[in-house]
Amino acid sequence: MEVNMTLVRFRPYKDFDMGTVPKRFSDMIDDFFNDALDVREREAFKPGVDISEDNTHYHVRVSLPGIKKEDVKINLDDNVLHISGERRQEKKQDEVKYHLLETSYGKFERAFTLPENVDSESIKAEFKDGLLHLAIEKKEKKVSKQISIK
User: Where would I find the H helices in the chain?
Assistant: First the structure.
C-alpha cells in the first residue's frame, strides 16, 4: 500500500486578515493591557514635556493645547516642581453626530525633581499659544577647597 503525502508549510495566520493581526508581539501586549485598563485612565490628559539646559538655565516646556493659563498651577515643594491643571471637555451637543473623538481630557499633574544647583527664587514662567515655558536659573556651583592643617 502506497501513501502519497504532500508537505505544506505551516502558516498560523493564513486565515486571518493581516490588518487585525499585530505585526509585533509588543503591539499585542500593549493592546491587551490597554484594553484591560479603565477607560477613564486611558483617556486622561497627559501633557508632553521637554526639558533642556544651557549654560545658565534649565528650560521646561509643557505642551498645554486648549488650556487657559488660569487653569494651570505651578508649585515648588522641597525641590520638586509640580505642574497641574485640567483640560476640560466641551459639552457634547445632542444634535451633533460625532464620528471620532481622539482628544483626551481631565486633570493632570506632572512632577519633576530639580537639581540641587537651581535658584528656586528665580523661576520664571511664561504661557503663550498653549505652551508653558519655565526658565530656571542655575546657581554657581559651590567650590570645594582644601583646608590646610597648621
Answer: 25-36, 39-42
Q: Which residues are paired to 49 by β-bridges? A: 62
Is pLDDT at 91 greater than 80 in this prediction? no
CB 81 within 8 A of CB 74: yes
Neighbours of 132 (CB within 10 A): 21
Beta bridge partners of 133: 61, 126
DSSP type of residue 24: S
Residue tagged 485612565 (cell numbers): 41
Give the domain ranges of the chain. Answer: 45-90+103-141
Task: Tell me: pLDDT of 135 over 60.
Answer: yes
CA distances, 101 to each of 45, 87, 130 (Å):
13, 15, 20
Q: What distance lies between CA 84 and its chain's CA centroid?
A: 13
Neighbouring CB atoms inside 10 A of 14's CB total 8
Q: List, for residues 44-64, the tens digit of each pLDDT value.
A: 789 999 999 999 999 999 999
Higher pLDDT, 74 or 101: 74
CATH number of 45-90+103-141: 2.60.40.790
Q: pLDDT tens digits for 60-84?
A: 999 999 899 999 999 999 889 999 9
